[in-house]
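ENTRY TYPE: protein
CONTENTS: sequence, structure tokens:
***
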Amino acid sequence: MGIGASVLLIALGAILTFALNWRIGVVNLDIVGWILMIAGAIGLLFTTLIWGRRRTDVVERTDVDPRI
């Protein structure tokens, strides 16, 4: 899951939790919103951990002709 998808889940969960007062049968949209926000936060955490661990290695080439 990328950063964009995580932020989207957090935003959708916040809308369902705090902005809407709908009832759809036995489904509680407040709980669904909290679940989406938690899933988005976990996805954002894992995404930043994975992207933060990447390193860039500098390789020096010694076989290049310096006269060029």
